[in-house]
Write the C-alpha cells for this entry.
Amino acid sequence: MQVYISADMEGTAGVTGWGMTNPGEHDYELARRLMAAEVNAAIDGAFLGGATNVVVNDSHDGMRNLPLDLVDPRALVLSGAPKAGSMVEGLTEDFDLMFCTGYHAMAGSPSTLAHTYNLTVQAVEVSGRKVGELGLNAFWAGTFGVPIALVSGDDVLAAEAEALVPWARYAQVKEARGRYASLSRGAEAARAALRQAAEAAVRQRPAMKPLQPPAGPELRIRFTNPGQAQTAAVCPGAQRLDALTVAFRHDDYSEVYRAFRTMVTLASGQN
Ligand SMILES: [Zn+2]
C-alpha cells in the first residue's frame, strides 16, 4: 500500500499570513515546523492504517520547507524546485492513495491565504467547473487512477473537498476568520485529527475513487490584469477570450496541467 502526500503549508494550523509562508520572513521557521509535524501525523496515520511506503512531495513555494531531520524517517521526501510535476511530481499509477495536507481553498474564496498557485490567478475553471489547487491536482491524480483519500486545511477547503472528492477523509485543523486570520486547533489536537483521518483513509481505501478529469478538458484562467493574460496567451495552443481570460483545450489532461503551469509562470512576470 503506497501513499503519496502532496504537502502544502498555508492550510496548517496556526499559519495565518504570508510572513509565515515565505522563506526568510517572520515566523517562517515556526510555520515549517508546524507543517512538518502535521505531515508527520499524516505519515504516522498512513502506516497505522496499513501503508507500507509513503512519499511526501514538498509542495509549497520553493518546495524546500520540510526540514528532513524533522520528518518521520519511514517516509521519503521529494523536495526542491522546479519539478516538472510541481505539487504532484513523482505521482504515478504505482501509488494507491494520495493525501493533500496543509492545503487552502481556491483563489477568491474566504479561505485563509486563499490563492491558486500564485496571486496572478483570480479564477480557474476546467470544463466549466471552478477549481483550485485541490481540483487541479485531484484530476491529475485521477489520470493515474489514484484517489484523493485525505485532505487537511480550514473549513472553507472542507466544503470545496466535499463537493469535489466526497469520499475523502477531511482533517479540519482551523476555521477561516479572514484572509489573514484563523481560529486554529491547538497543534497537538490538529495532529491528532490528521493522524486519525489518515489512518481511516487508508483503512477505507475500497471506498476511495479517482477523480477523472472531464473528457476533452478545457481550461480557463482569469488573471488579475490584462498584461498577465496577454503574456499567458503566448503559450502554444492558448486562446485569449477577453482582456483577463485565457483558454486552453486538449484531450490529454496532462497537457492541460502543463499549460496551466506554463501560463501562470508566464503571467507571474507581469504585475
Ligand atoms: Zn503553498
User: Anything to note?
Assistant: The mean pLDDT is 97.
